[in-house]
């Protein structure tokens, strides 16, 4: 058999398998059950408008708070890790290794339940606040490593140029190194943001009041009360509505940044 | 009051701009500079030549302490640069530096590159910084490029912007570290022209270079370095035209 014939035959087999699988799914699937349980428009309508004006809104708010908190704490940790002062480096390294090695769920448990019980102290913002502190503490560990990598990726000549002009180390970091570092790490930082959007679902274990519920908690409650899976599908679509434009935005930012570099 | 200030200004004009004594610099076990004595007088243009690895760039980088000298002293206008008590940032505003790789700030426009240090290190207001920047940009022939980003400029244009950036600090002297080595041959001329004009205006200059034509035409003195020591120095026509040392002759025969 000639190689070109063999290649065509192999492709034909691939297409045939594809068509057969599709046909089997189409004929064997219980379309009625799928439609009434997952794509039930009446149930979907019942989740509105709360699933948007409460749940989706809260997801966005929690993500923004956790991301800004994670950025600030992560930046401090990254600068500590690059500090000439040895104990600072130890502290930052220990923190980063610890919280990258722990499940976020466990950390949120700690801030929501363990600390309040042990010290009779409730974090600001009640259960949500406690859960958010847990998210910030964990995401800061990842963000710190991303920022440190970005700072180290800025060419040494940039620092030398700034210092030779008499700019002090602090201003060199603020005006020359960090702006370039953040351009470099825009893609991985957006990954952190997308992961955070999804991780806000972990807040449910902190115990959210009705008005505090985010998308996943809300969808789960609706799933129970309406005995139908459609709320999960609606919540999924809303997650995508938030995350997809974000990844598009990053692609655009990257193209824009290329011009400035 | 008046007499004191008059006295101090008179002293500063007689001091050498740069005076290096018994300078040694090692990177680990690698001795790059082995006891350098070197000076640049005010208004003098000194070209430092030599094979790569001879330590000429390291010597230049020790002058503004981008490299920490291992032993020896570096005095700039009578101030000991190696003294921990010296306000290094303030001294560096008086020492302009131009790099082989330009090192423009890629996230800032040309104007941003020229005003940043003026505002951060010299504490000039924005209006004054812009005015100084525009004046120096015109001087290097790039007035129309003030809103461009470095990536939109040719190598030669970038290096001229880098020179204008250093000049915007109103430095007393300029250090050039192989300023044309990273340029395409056809772009070298514009940069050298700007440097020649600076020399004509009486700027104190220390130039590490491979441009023998520039050294001959513009240099008041040429210093030949090899193996971490100053082998010979003197007037360009003497060092380049009638070298006394075998190492100088052998180097020049390769580059001329």
UniProtKB/TrEMBL annotation, chain B:
InterPro entries xrefs: AAA+_ATPase, ABC_ATPase_HisP-typ, ABC_transporter-like_ATP-bd, ABC_transporter-like_CS, MetN_ABC_transporter-like, P-loop_NTPase
* Compartments, record wording: Cell membrane
Cellular component per GO? Answer: plasma membrane
**Gene3D superfamilies in UniProt:** P-loop containing nucleotide triphosphate hydrolases (3.40.50.300)
Q: Where is it mainly found?
A: membrane
User: In what way does this protein cross or attach to the membrane?
Assistant: Peripheral membrane protein
- State one molecular function term (GO): ATP binding
Ranges of residues in domain ABC transporter = 18-252
Lineage: superkingdom: Bacteria
What are the protein's UniProt keywords? Amino-acid transport, ATP-binding, Cell membrane, Membrane, Nucleotide-binding, Transport
Does the keyword Nucleotide-binding belong to this entry?
yes
Q: What is this protein called?
A: ABC-type polar-amino-acid transporter
- This protein's species is uncultured Arthrobacter sp
């Amino acid at each position: 058999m000639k190689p070109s014939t063999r290649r065509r035959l192999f492709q034909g087999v691939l297409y045939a398998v594809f068509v057969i699988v599709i046909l089997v799914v189409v004929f064997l699937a219980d379309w009625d059950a799928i439609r009434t349980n997952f794509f039930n428009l009446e149930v979907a309508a019942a989740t509105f408008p709360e699933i948007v004006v409460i749940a989706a809104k809260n997801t966005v708010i929690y993500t923004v708070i956790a991301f800004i908190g994670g950025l600030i704490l992560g930046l401090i940790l990254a600068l500590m890790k690059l500090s000439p002062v040895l104990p600072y480096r130890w502290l930052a390294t220990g923190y980063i290794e610890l919280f990258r090695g722990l499940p976020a769920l466990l950390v949120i448990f700690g801030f929501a339940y363990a600390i309040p019980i042990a010290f009779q102290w409730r974090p600001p913002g009640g259960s949500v606040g406690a859960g958010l502190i847990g998210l910030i503490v964990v995401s800061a560990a990842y963000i710190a490593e991303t920022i440190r990598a970005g700072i180290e990726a800025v060419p040494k000549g940039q620092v030398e140029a700034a210092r030779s002009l008499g700019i002090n180390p602090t201003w060199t970091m603020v005006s020359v190194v960090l702006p370039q570092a953040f351009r470099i790490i825009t893609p991985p930082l957006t990954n952190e943001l997308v992961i955070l959007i999804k991780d806000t679902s972990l807040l449910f274990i902190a115990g959210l009041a009705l008005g505090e519920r985010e998308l996943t908690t809300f969808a789960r409650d609706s799933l129970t009360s309406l005995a139908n899976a459609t709320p999960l599908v609606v919540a999924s679509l809303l997650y995508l509505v938030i995350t997809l434009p974000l990844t598009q935005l990053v692609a655009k930012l990257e193209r824009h940044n290329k011009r400035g570099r | 009051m008046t007499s004191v200030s008059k006295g101090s200004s008179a002293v500063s004009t007689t001091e050498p701009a740069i005076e290096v004594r018994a300078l040694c610099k090692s990177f680990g076990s690698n001795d790059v500079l082995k006891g350098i004595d070197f000076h640049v007088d005010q208004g003098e243009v000194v070209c430092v030549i030599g094979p790569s690895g001879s330590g000429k760039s390291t010597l230049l980088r020790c002058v503004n302490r981008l490299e920490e000298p291992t032993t020896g002293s570096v005095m700039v206008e009578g101030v000991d640069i190696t003294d921990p008590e010296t306000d290094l940032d303030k001294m560096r505003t008086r020492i302009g530096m131009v790099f082989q790789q330009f090192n423009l700030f890629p996230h800032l426009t040309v104007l941003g590159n020229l005003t940043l240090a003026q505002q951060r290190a010299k504490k000039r207001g924005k209006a004054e910084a812009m005015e100084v920047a525009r004046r120096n940009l015109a001087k290097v022939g790039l007035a129309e490029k003030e809103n461009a980003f470095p990536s939109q400029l040719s190598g030669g244009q970038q290096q001229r912007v880098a020179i204008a950036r250093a000049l915007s600090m109103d430095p007393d002297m300029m250090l050039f570290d192989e300023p044309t080595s990273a340029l395409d041959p056809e772009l070298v001329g514009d940069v050298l022209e700007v440097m020649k004009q600076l020399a004509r205006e009486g700027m104190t200059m220390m130039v590490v270079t491979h441009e023998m034509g520039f050294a001959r035409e513009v240099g008041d003195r040429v210093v030949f370095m090899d193996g971490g020591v100053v082998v010979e120095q003197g007037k360009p026509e003497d060092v380049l035209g009638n070298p006394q040392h075998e190492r100088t002759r052998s180097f020049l025969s390769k580059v001329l």
